[in-house]
From TrEMBL:
<dbReference type="InterPro" id="IPR012334">
    <property type="entry name" value="Pectin_lyas_fold"/>
</dbReference>
<feature type="domain" description="Pectinesterase catalytic">
    <location>
        <begin position="7"/>
        <end position="143"/>
    </location>
</feature>
<dbReference type="InterPro" id="IPR000070">
    <property type="entry name" value="Pectinesterase_cat"/>
</dbReference>
<dbReference type="Pfam" id="PF01095">
    <property type="entry name" value="Pectinesterase"/>
</dbReference>
<keyword id="KW-0378">Hydrolase</keyword>
<comment type="similarity">
    <text>Belongs to the pectinesterase family.</text>
</comment>
<dbReference type="InterPro" id="IPR011050">
    <property type="entry name" value="Pectin_lyase_fold/virulence"/>
</dbReference>
<dbReference type="InterPro" id="IPR033131">
    <property type="entry name" value="Pectinesterase_Asp_AS"/>
</dbReference>
<protein>
    <recommendedName>
        <fullName>Pectinesterase</fullName>
        <ecNumber>3.1.1.11</ecNumber>
    </recommendedName>
</protein>
<comment type="pathway">
    <text>Glycan metabolism; pectin degradation; 2-dehydro-3-deoxy-D-gluconate from pectin: step 1/5.</text>
</comment>
<dbReference type="GO" id="GO:0030599">
    <property type="term" value="F:pectinesterase activity"/>
</dbReference>
<keyword id="KW-0063">Aspartyl esterase</keyword>
<dbReference type="GO" id="GO:0045490">
    <property type="term" value="P:pectin catabolic process"/>
</dbReference>
<feature type="active site">
    <location>
        <position position="24"/>
    </location>
</feature>
<dbReference type="GO" id="GO:0042545">
    <property type="term" value="P:cell wall modification"/>
</dbReference>
Length: 169
């Protein structure tokens, strides 16, 4: 399972979904995507996300709220990362989420040794679980003081613009 979900363009909402993969299994270039109460299973070594935000005017961002990141295989402990920057302006947030011991203590990783992380926006807020300890996180990640609101990503009219059963959220 490689690159399972392409969150690539426009505003996107994923709720109560099971998404599994190994390397960059949630990826894309221009989407503003909200992931609500999703189960993310890492089945191989690598990053969960690879956001491809190419420049400061591209507003691509992925926000995972109330997610569960885990592996069913105990030998995978510490082998997965929350994300890595496909392009230099990658934006990913994990908040209010249960991060299992599959998450490496560094949390996030570079794409390669030459990868510029100066403009990367990798943030966490109020996560819990064995993989949520931020004491060893990489220097290009950080903590938020407040959670991201769903309307920051999908805009305030998302429930009237699309068919969204808000009871499902």
């Amino acid at each position: 399972m490689f690159r399972i979900l392409c969150a690539n363009k426009g505003r996107e909402l994923y709720a109560r979904s099971y998404i599994a993969g190994a390397v960059d299994f949630i990826f894309g270039l221009q989407a503003k995507a909200w992931f609500e109460s999703c189960d993310l299973e890492s089945v191989g070594k690598g990053a969960v996300t690879a956001n491809g935000n190419t420049n400061s005017s591209n507003l691509s961002e992925y926000v995972f709220n109330n997610a569960r990141v885990f592996s069913s295989n105990a030998s995978m402990n510490g082998t997965a990362y929350l994300g890595r920057p496909w392009y230099p302006y990658a934006r990913v947030v994990f908040q209010n989420s249960k991060l299992g011991d599959v998450i490496n203590p560094q949390g996030w990783q570079q794409w390669n040794k030459n990868n510029n992380t100066a403009n990367v926006y990798f943030k966490e807020y109020n996560n819990y679980g064995r993989g949520a300890n931020t004491s060893q996180r990489v220097s290009f990640s950080g903590q938020l003081d407040a959670p991201v609101n769903i309307t920051d990503i999908l805009l305030s009219n998302y429930t009237s613009e699309w068919w969204v059963d808000t009871k499902f959220l």
